[in-house]
């Protein structure tokens, strides 16, 4: 009886989620892929390794229904709080561990978030307050890390201390299911009416700007308007809120057939064994992003903040980024 009730509750929850994210349009469309049923497709994907807390208390995570995949650590009186654009959520655990090995005083006292930069900026405007589900908490950042333009924007707004500090670069790729059943060969294929896409939302995901540039290079403004206009209107492009988790999740669930992401995100999915692959974008059409950081004005943890910026540009920090295909920033990348 309990199992029957549980199934009903889960089914009801999934229907509610589908309604919220406008996924029913896709769910009603036949898919060449079998929807994944393995709990392993649901974030968080690191099985607790992205949390450096020593005492964790009650462990309660139900991946398809109840989790906080992009919030890490103890929000109560951290010694270092990082607002990190979510594009390298998978690299944060090894970065934090290496940083703590160098500076043991911070062990278990680092808090970090990995949501889109636009949303992090909105959270800063609220004084660091965020609500997820039924929980609300406040953590003001010590360091803001995102694309160079996004960081510079916050410096210009007076929230961060300049200059912006660049550290790595990244490029785009087309994420697809393993085996690429839709036979996508390049960006122009994304404009086809029968290809279902997950694409980052231009409202708060900086990657969307680079994607539009690459789409225009490959197929002109018509391809941009098709992918981000016509296909959004007819439901064959679904806009994500946290592209670095939703795109691979929806691909593994069989709800979409492709999505443009940073190449590092596809590399991570492949490394952990998810049924994900990618289609490379030629250099002539691709776009390079520069990641940068800056210290928040008035932070009480200025020393820790500067140490973090120094560490991620160190040989040890850069070697961690390189595992996922990032390249160290050089001034010639401007």
Automatic annotation (TrEMBL):
Pfam families assigned to the protein according to its UniProt record, in alphabetical order: SBP_bac_11 (PF13531)
GO molecular function, one term: molybdate ion binding
SUPFAM superfamilies assigned to the protein according to its UniProt record, in alphabetical order: Periplasmic binding protein-like II (SSF53850)
Extent of the signal sequence: 1-27
One of the GO biological process terms: molybdate ion transport
Record's keyword annotation contains Signal: yes
Keywords on record: Signal
Source species, domain of life: Bacteria
Signal listed as a keyword: yes
InterPro entries: ModA/WtpA
PANTHER family: MOLYBDATE-BINDING PERIPLASMIC PROTEIN (PTHR30632), SULFATE-BINDING PROTEIN (PTHR30632:SF0)
Name by which UniProt lists this protein: Glycine/betaine ABC transporter substrate-binding protein
The species this protein was found in: Paraburkholderia humisilvae
